[in-house]
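Q: What changes when pyridoxal-5'-phosphate is included in the input?
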Amino acid sequence: MKYISTRGEAPALNFEEVLLTGLASDGGLYVPEHLPTFSREEIAEMAGMDYPQLAGKIITPFVDDCIPADDLKEILNETYAEFRHNAVAPLVQIDANQWVLELFHGPTLAFKDFALQLLGRLLDYVLERKHQKVVIMGATSGDTGSAAIEGCKRCHNIDIFILHPHQRVSEVQRRQMTTVAGDNIHNLAVAGNFDDCQAMVKASFGDRSFLPEDRSLVAVNSINWARIMAQIVYYFYAAVALGAPARPVAFSVPTGNFGDIFAGYLARQMGLPVEQLIIATNRNDVLHRALTTNTYGRQSLEHTLSPSMDITVSSNFERLLFDLYQRDGAAIADLMRRFDHGDIDFNAAAMEQARSLFSSQCVSDEETCLQIANTWQECEYLLDPHSAIGVKAALESGLPPEVPVVTLATAHPAKFPDAIKAAIAGHEVSLPLHLSDLFSREERFSVLPNELAAVQAFMTENINA
Ligand SMILES: *Cc1c(COP(=O)(O)O)cnc(C)c1O
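A: The predicted holo structure follows.
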């Protein structure tokens, strides 16, 4: 399996190479040159497979001969043993034809564990084999940082540096990062905001000369192909449980960077009968505007009750555009160049195809709270604010009653206690048992000035031999 860049100028890579790469050298994102497909018979045979087994089936063609089958199997078994539900991704019914796919039973209570638990292990496996060590650097305003740290904490060949804006992430989110013990884990609280942190990461990827010569820099944000790949699995898992391939299902996906829903699009391209993919956004609705008005443009960031979806641009959207433009890398490079300077629109054929594949809904904070309260009243099921946006969009989708709609529940409600309290007056939600001592665990982080040189100096001093 070869991977090619959406902008057509970077060299094609194999799986191992794409794992160790972030952005392509031409500024594009890597995608598989050809997608594997599964026949109806093959999909029918997936019924009853446990999660790691199914993951092996879906992921093997992407990994190709880069990892021997037995080793991959072991990695997948270990990865999904970390989840605290035997079903790994259980389905819960909340209304006549509405289902919730709970993706929050991993160590950090958000769906990002599905990809980052696997990514950490895959990286460590290939690095061990190559006798190579790397540095991971990332900026976080919340969920990604803790999931990346949990995913890498046992990786001997990785030093991970996660920057967060000092005193600007929630206490639960900070503690999920800073209470993980390990010499290779470095939490940096930067005296600035999230954009400052992100700018430092970007600058460091642009000029890596501050690093020792034997270390390369790896990205763990959702431009990393392996993250998308891992997320394809649960679309098959849920659809097959609800009767695919005989019965098509729809998915409603709380969307920020378009990584999660792009995996759903790939599942459909791989043969899974998907009736509809619903892009559910909060007030930061760049994708909803693109689909409804054919204007793709940045607006200023709004802070909402669903902070993990507070984005102005969805970087993975470029991967879809590549397909919508018949995989014409030069056309995508041109679009993105124009997008750097202002709003763009898409050609009629691309728009028509996008609208046939996706629908979209934008959900306000008020509607989010109402949905949390309504679902609680109707079936005593507690949604987190991100998942509530998904359920609201699912209920508004207007799909025929015979189509089951699955909302991806991307976070556990205990991660967002203030939003829950606001939605259901005074309702307290407690952390799951394995995190119940989170507030008494010892924290480790370093507060650093908002200066690139200080951050980079800290990194070079703290990289393990
Ligand atoms: C990251 C995240 C999202 C958005 O996922 P994308 O892949 O960026 O679209 C939604 N909900 C939660 C809880 C998240 O952490």
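Observations recorded in class: Residues 80-107+226-423 form a domain with the Rossmann fold fold (CATH 3.40.50.1100).
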